[in-house]
Amino acid sequence: MITMENVCKSYRVAKRNAGFREACKALFHREYEEIEALKNISFTIRDGEMVGYIGPNGAGKSSTIKILSGILTPDSGKVEIDDRILWDIAGQAHSPWPRRERYRRIDHVKQIGVVFGQRSQLWWDVPVIDSYELLKDIYSIPDSVYRKNLDELTESLALSELLRTPTRQLSLGQRMRCEIAASLLHSPGILFLDEPTIGLDAVSKLAVRDFVKKLNKEHCTTVILTTHDMQDIEALASRIILIGKGRILMDGTLGDIRKGDATMDETLAQLYKSYEIT
Amino acid sequence: MKKYISYFRMWLVMGLQYRAAAFGGVVTQFFWGFMEIAAMHAFHESNPDAYPMTMEATCSYIWFQQAFIAMLSARVFDGQILDSVRSGNIAYELCRPVRIYDLWFSRSTASRLSGAGLRCIPILLVAVLLPKSYRLSAPASAASFALFVLTLALAVLVSVAYIMLIYISGLYTISSDGLRRLCSSLMDFLTGGYIPLPFFPAGIRQVLELLPFASMQNVPLRIYSGDLAGPAMYRAICLQVFWLVTLVAIGRALCRGAERKVIIQGN
Asked: Do B263 and A103 touch (CB under 8 A)?
C-alpha cells in the first residue's frame, strides 16, 4: 500500500530577461522564482491496483514519481509504502529543526521497479544480458529467482534475440522491452512507469501494454503509470488520478470522466479545459 | 560488497575493449617519456652536483609514470560519470540499492586499471631494452619492489578518492568543468607529474610532501629505484593511508548530503 500525505515540493527557478546586458547583470544578482510543483498531494493506492497518473506537461507527475521512488526529497509531508516510512518531513515553518527528515532510500528501492521512458538504465556498450547479470548482483537476487524471472520475462517480452546485442544497437521499441525486463528482475511489488510508451510504434506499444496487464494479473504487481497516451490509460488503468498545477483534481475511474462516445483524447482535453489547467 | 565487485569487473572488462585508444596511448606516452628523459639529461649535464636524484632513478620514475599514466594521471576522467550527472541519468543509479560513492569509486578504479593494463606492458618492455642512459633499470631490491607494488595500489586509491571529490562537486554545481580543469592542473603539478617532487626548492618541498598530492605517484615511483627509503619512506606510506581514509570520509559525507539535495530535472 502506498500512502502520500500532504506532500509539497517547490523548485527555485532562476529567471532573467533576454540579452547580453541581462546576462552580465545575472552574474552579480540573480532573481529566483519559487515554483510550487506539488501542493499538498495526498492519496492512497492499494496493493495490486493499476493507477493512471495523468495531467498536462509540468503538472507534477514526474515529481510525484521521483518522490515515490525515493530520489527526490519533498519539502514536507509523509510518504509510507508497505508500512515503511520513506519520507517523513516536518514543514519548515514552525519546527525547531526545520526539514528534519527520515531517509530510507536503499531499503526502499529494493522493493520497487522504475522505468523512465526517456532514459536508459542499461549499460550502453555491453550486451543486454551483461547488464542483467550486473543487476542480479546489485539487487542480490538469488540464482533460482533470477533464472525463473529471466526466463519468464524473455518469453513474455520476446527478448531471446535481443539479449546478446549491445544496448546501443537496439531500436527504441526493443530497448524499451529490455528496460522493462531490467526493472522487474528482482520481482518488485511496485512498478513505476514514467511514460513507458513514448516514441514507440503501434506494435511495441501493444506489446508493452499486454505485458503490463499480464504482470498485474499474474503477480499482483501494483503499477503506477504516467503517460500522455490515452490509449495506455484506457488499456491499463482501472483508476485515474488527475493532477494539474500541483494539485489533485480528480480521483476516479475512466467511466467517471467519459461522456457519450467522445474519444479519449477529446474527453481529456475537455477535462483539462474544465479545470483550467492547460 | 559483491555488487561493487561486480561493477568493478564490468568496468574492467569494458575498458579492455578500447584497443585503438590504447595503441595511440602507448605511442604518445613512449615518445613523451623519451623526450622528458632527454630534457633531464640536459639538466644533469649542466650541473651534476645540483641534481637531486640519480639518473637511473629519474629514468625509472619517468618510464613508470608514462606506463601507468592512465592509472595515476589527473586528466583521466570517467566521462560517463560526468554525463550521468549532467543528463540526469543518475536517476536510475539512485533507484538502485547502491551507495553512489562506492559505486563511482569502484567504477573509476576499474576504468583506471583497465586503461593502464592495456598500455603499460609494451611501454615497459621497450623501456627495458633501451640504451643504458635511457633504460628502465631493475628495482633497488626485492623489498623495494614489493613496497612499490603496495604503494602503487595505495597511490591509485588516493588519486581516485581525490578525483571523486570532483565528480561529487558536479552534484552541487551542475557543471564541474571549471573545477575539474583547475583541480587537474593543480594535481598534475603538485603530484610531481611535470617534474618529480625532489626537484622543488627546499621549504616548498617539505610542505608539498605533506599534501595528499604527494601520496599519489610520488611515493611508488621513487620507492622503486630506492630514491625514497628508510624512515622517510615509512612516513610517506603512513601519509598515504592517512590521506586515503580522510579523502574517502570527506567524499562520503559530501555525497550523502548531495544525494538528498539532487533534483533530477525533466522527465
From this structure: no
The size of chain B, in residues, is 267
- CA contacts within 13 A on the Cβ side of B202: 2
ipTM above 0.95, yes or no: no
Q: Could you report how far apart the first and last alpha carbons of chain B are, in Å?
A: 31
Quick check: A126 and B10 CB within 8 A? yes
Over residues A139-152, the pLDDT tens digits come to 999 999 999 999 99
Q: Residues of A206-215 as b/e, b for ≥16 C-beta within 10 angstroms?
A: ebbbebbeeb
Q: What is the pTM of this model?
A: 0.86
Of residues B6, B7, B260, nearest to A73 (C-beta):
B260
Nearest to B95 among A71, A103, A133 (CB): A71
| Residues of B with Cβ-Cβ distance to A195 under 8 angstroms | 267
Hey, are the CB atoms on B97 and A110 less than 8 Å from each other?
yes
Give the contacts of A186 (CB within 8 A, at least 6 positions apart). A110, A113, A135, A139, A141, A149
- Domain locations along chain A: 45-73+106-121+183-274
Q: CB A105 to CB B2 under 8 A?
A: no
Q: Which CATH superfamily is domain A45-73+106-121+183-274 in?
A: P-loop containing nucleotide triphosphate hydrolases (3.40.50.300)
Q: Give, as one character, the DSSP assignment of residue A81.
A: E
- The terminus-to-terminus CA distance of chain A in angstroms comes to 31
CA A139 to chain centre: 20
